[in-house]
Amino acid sequence: MSLHLPCPHCGADVVFRSPALPSRVCDSCRSMLVRSDEGIAQFGIAAVLPFDVSPVQIGMRGIADGASFEVIGRVRWSWTDGAWNEWLLLFDDDGSTAWLGEAMGQFMLLRERPFREVRSKTLTEMAKGGTAKIGQKVELLGRKLVIADARQALCVTAEGELPFTATSGWQVYNVDLRGREGECVSLQRDGKDVSFYQGRYVTLAELAPRGLRAIEGWALPDYAA
């Protein structure tokens, strides 16, 4: 059940659709808000989202693994040679969340997993501050994966609901691994904290999206109702 609270900065109605997500960017004034048992507090102003040509947007709905979801949040990341989006999906049936990573027209559907379950010397060393080597092979969770990407990334800004407060300038070390059958893993290191995500590559068509963003000069595909 959604929770409605007034923004402490502008007074606009702020909707929290998931009780598990404490952070929200106000749609009206872009205040970064955090909800707690004591109420709602402001932690700065989120930077304006830069223009991009992503067809995904807040409010888009789709289906993944037979379950319906809605896009409710986004973090925009940058690195020396470009940028990418991470969209937060909220599933209707159980209230769980997943991430849809979007970079250069490719999409990764990922769910967060406890890093303590990872039994990989290579990833454990990375979590402790080690540097990844592109092309290095890693055996993980019964799968053979290859390190496809490793970069220092900077949070540009955010929107919508999130499990954390994504402040502009926040730096992480991001490593992506992929397998031969489309499986993928992502590790993010922020100082001593490590987040671990597991999933697979998907196409936008697989997600049966509804409510894609209209982009001038781009015709909506047939699969987008």
TrEMBL record:
It holds the Pfam family DUF4178. The lineage of its organism: Bacteria, Pseudomonadati, Pseudomonadota, Alphaproteobacteria, Sphingomonadales. This is DUF4178 domain-containing protein. Residues 57-202 form the DUF4178 domain.
